[in-house]
Design a protein that fits this description.
- Helices cover 37% and strands 27% of the residues.
- With 243 residues, the protein is α/β, with parallel strands linked by helices.
- The strands form two sheets. Strands 6-7-8-3-9-10 form a six-stranded mixed sheet, sandwiched between helices. Strands 2-1-4-5 form a four-stranded antiparallel sheet, with helices on one face.
- The two termini are 35 Å apart.
- The mean pLDDT is 93.
């Protein structure tokens, strides 16, 4: 399978601050690809650029062969990008705390008009994340951090995306919960055939889970290789793996 996401020489600025500089990368369909880097390196900015939440100063982003982002006046809106088949699980989850689990999942299916299909997908999510089925009528604020993360992923899957963007899915969670979530990510990729682009502070876990990885420093890609090679890279080990 060929590339599904192509990022070509993009730059993003916040006022006079350059957040991304001439970043290029590709994600092949069916893969799990990770992006690692320190806090403030520009990782979340990159994901937000893919879904049109921040404008590009230069370069372009293509999805499934179609240019979706160029400059401010030549990019698709975020909702149209979502309709193409991209879903983002943002850092910090951003759940609707005063809505129930079920209502949050309904929000994830806002583009779907077929109620029977929405109901079917919700049942699939309850089967995949049994704790969500047990708590579907509960307010989301009553869930633990790990349960909220599962719900945020389930909400994104309600749109049946081809590409799932995950921004720090393990952030602030206990190690056992993180392992559980990453096992779910593997299943989503392998069984549901969803391509995954993953930003994660836990570099070791991210690279172990990925077929390919990129290292972002100060808004620039400084290394790229298959996941195993990056795990064994001395520079990566010193900077991100505590070796």
């Amino acid at each position: 399978m060929g590339e599904i996401l192509k990022i070509d020489d993009i730059s993003v600025s916040y006022g006079s601050i350059r957040a991304l500089s001439d970043v290029s990368m590709t994600v092949n369909e069916g893969d799990i690809v990770s992006l690692i880097g320190a806090n403030g390196a520009g990782k979340s900015t990159l994901l937000n650029a893919i879904v049109g939440l921040v404008p590009l100063k230069g370069g372009s982003i293509s999805f499934a062969g179609e240019t979706i982002c160029q400059t401010k006046h030549h990019s698709l809106s975020t909702d149209l990008i979502a309709r193409r088949g991209i879903a983002l699980v943002p850092e910090g989850r951003h759940v609707f705390a005063d809505m129930t689990v079920e209502e949050n999942l309904d929000m994830g299916a806002f583009m779907v008009r077929d109620q029977a299909l929405i109901d079917k997908r919700k049942e699939e999510m309850y089967d995949f994340f049994p704790i969500l089925g047990a708590r579907k009528k509960q307010k989301t604020r009553s869930l633990s951090g790990g349960e909220q993360q599962m719900m945020a992923i389930a909400r994104a899957l309600m749109s049946a995306p081809r590409l799932l963007l995950l921004d720090e899915p393990g952030l602030g969670l206990a190690p056992l919960i993180v392992q559980d979530i990453f096992s779910k990510i593997k299943i989503i990729n392998e069984e549901n055939k969803v391509t995954i682009f993953l930003v994660e502070q836990n570099a070791r876990l991210a690279l172990k889970s990925s077929s390919y990885g990129y290292v972002l420093e100060n808004g620039r890609i400084v290394l790229q290789d298959n996941g195993e090679a990056l795990l064994n890279n001395e520079r990566v080990q010193k900077a991100y793996l505590g070796a």
